[in-house]
Amino acid sequence: MALIVHKYGGTSMGSTERIRNVARRVAKWHKAGHQMVVVPSAMSGETNRLLALAKEVAPEKPGKAYGRELDMLASTGEQASSALLAIALQAEGLDAVSYAGWQVPIKTNDAYTKARIESIDDARVRADLDAGKVVIITGFQGIDDGGNITTLGRGGSDTSAVAVAAALKANECLIYTDVDGVYTTDPRVVPEARRLERVSFEEMLEMASMGSKVLQIRSVEFAGKYKVPLRVLSSFTPWDIDLNEEATSGTLITFEEDADMERAVVSGIAFNRDEAKVSVLGVPDKPGIAYQILGAVAEANIEVDVIIQNLSKDGKTDFSFTVHRNDFQKTVDLLKGKVVPALGAADVVGDSRICKVSIVGIGMRSHVGVASRMFKCLSDEGINIQMISTSEIKTSVVIDEKYMELAVRALHREFDLDQTADTIAR
Amino acid sequence: MALIVHKYGGTSMGSTERIRNVARRVAKWHKAGHQMVVVPSAMSGETNRLLALAKEVAPEKPGKAYGRELDMLASTGEQASSALLAIALQAEGLDAVSYAGWQVPIKTNDAYTKARIESIDDARVRADLDAGKVVIITGFQGIDDGGNITTLGRGGSDTSAVAVAAALKANECLIYTDVDGVYTTDPRVVPEARRLERVSFEEMLEMASMGSKVLQIRSVEFAGKYKVPLRVLSSFTPWDIDLNEEATSGTLITFEEDADMERAVVSGIAFNRDEAKVSVLGVPDKPGIAYQILGAVAEANIEVDVIIQNLSKDGKTDFSFTVHRNDFQKTVDLLKGKVVPALGAADVVGDSRICKVSIVGIGMRSHVGVASRMFKCLSDEGINIQMISTSEIKTSVVIDEKYMELAVRALHREFDLDQTADTIAR
């Protein structure tokens, strides 16, 4: 007997028929002898519907107290879907009870619409589990010290599920979603992309931060911090498939670096075109220029990703970095307005037609020459590299966005990730 | 400066545009210097939508724990509408905060789907009011001792509003609805029906129990118990009408029996066709027959309204009573199966094509002959009276349902309730 947490996304809860299938699946696990906790999202479309109503009653954002009321509003979506799932489980003959975040309670800070979980009291839930009940806990929400409802931000239900699993010391947290696992790269770009049976927590973190949308990055961070074994799997397999088959499907995000995992140098290729490049040209090369440029950007609440500073020539240097595309124009205006004159720099130029492509793999730690193999591969395809950024288990390059698909496909082949490459053990 | 509670029904909250109008109306009252508490219902249709989803996931009612989950589900409707109203008030420039029943808290017993309010803690609300905030409190719901959400049953938001007004010792509780007050009778039956400017609490109670749907009867009982001045008025007047005009519109349900109120003998005519008549014929006239018949009915959880026992003849009597039409067949079957053989009665006959018509008026206390004036009026119209029931301030008759409209119109005229009767002061 194990304690298992299931999390179901909005699509999996998208209709009453789907909710009944979720109930049948959970009942199957319960009947196999497991203690079951289920964390559902709101029915798909519900959160958007509620937030659209808020926009209709207040077209302009009406100040500070607005966030608290948005959370009161949006949290009703998960409360309703959780109650419906409890009813569906009761219809399957199980004893089931649903709790809103505040009833557990899941304590958070008071950063409305993007709160962070601070603690979870497991007493009530554990008593129910010991009494043989299936416990349903609303995703996405909690309660602050003032007794106000908070929400965790978009995709927060993943984080709720992992946090609940951590608090209960669950044996595994299964994230049911509309894809059947984590892939070596996006199958829409590379048809040969393979599902990974296992991926390390650190690789998953890099892939999630790089735009792989399978899991909310905060949930991966949480899983890492509390060592919660996570599995991503499809909620669209028939509910009555063999439990053992289901329990080993999808992708396991693991914390054990076993021998198998060492074999593959690169586990996946991540990419995104959400960024834009900004370059400050002809900056007098003095100490403190990075701070003068990036300090002003940070003060404007703009996040910076890749940063490079060219070699100095004649006492001048060029300084480049990437920001989210939504912040591109704001960044350029900010630099032109105040920073460039103060620095005595020559100009600011920008390019929003770039993309970032990354290879991610825990094997990079113990293999040399992986990055240069990546650069050679891109060079062979005639792709010019504009910026490079590296970490222990990832190498990212910024290139012209028109080469994105070409680069991803070439790298996928180069690192033997194609489905046909049967030399890869996993 | 007064402390005022506004309650808005589902139709008044039925769209985001209507919610904005509610916000503008509340803002007008707040700007006039009043402390404002608002109790909204769910947006019209929302509660039905949610309960229909529950029925889809569990076509059969799945046992005892079902009620708790239904309340978790249904309570989200008011939580959402309350948050939307808070946002709309913020958009009007006011400081507004919404509370779910559990946040106040409004404590109830644990009779899910039909809970009763036990206490209301006014500390949090009062602190907000003193800080100049408009406070919105979800109608229809509370929390039990176990920390579970409860709901008060259909129309429970009226009761929530009155209970909140009582707890805060509000100066007046205004129930905004889709009619503009309490009428002498249903204007769809008698076009000459007049709106009453004031009606006594006891008259309102009799009319509500008789099927006048303006207010939930429990809210009237609550208002009576705690002496909360209640006003029923329309939410469809333009929000920007003069506040003094608005504050005196509709119908005031009052606890003061002033001189004016003595003038009218009858205040209104109530009627319903929800009942059916059951007669047990040829019952041997011995002590205890009423208990033997009605005890069995009560044990089956069937409510009995009017009861008559005929004069005995040859040691036999007939015993008749009315039940809700939904319980009619069940009652007849029950009596035929066990009670009639045990009693040695001759037969059970029933008639579901009856109606009940009542005259209600606090003036009946001090006027004699009101009932006989009613009977004469009906006799003049050729209407046969089947049963009679009286109380201090009401006389009810059971008649053939085909005469219902005729009887109501005739009595409305007989007791000078028509709009043309300008001899009536109010």
UniProtKB/TrEMBL annotation, chains A, B:
Signal peptide: none annotated. Pathway: Amino-acid biosynthesis; L-threonine biosynthesis; L-threonine from L-aspartate: step 1/5; Amino-acid biosynthesis; L-lysine biosynthesis via DAP pathway; (S)-tetrahydrodipicolinate from L-aspartate: step 1/4; Amino-acid biosynthesis; L-methionine biosynthesis via de novo pathway; L-homoserine from L-aspartate: step 1/3. The keyword Nucleotide-binding applies. Keywords: Amino-acid biosynthesis, ATP-binding, Kinase, Lysine biosynthesis, Nucleotide-binding, Transferase. It is an enzyme of class 2 (transferase). Its EC number is 2.7.2.4. It catalyses: L-aspartate + ATP = 4-phospho-L-aspartate + ADP. CDD domains: AAK_AKii-LysC-BS (cd04261), ACT_AK-LysC-DapG-like_2 (cd04923), ACT_AKii-LysC-BS-like_1 (cd04913). GO terms for molecular function: aspartate kinase activity. Residues 278-353, 359-426 form the ACT domain. Belongs to the aspartokinase family. This is Aspartokinase. It comes from Hydrogenophaga bisanensis.
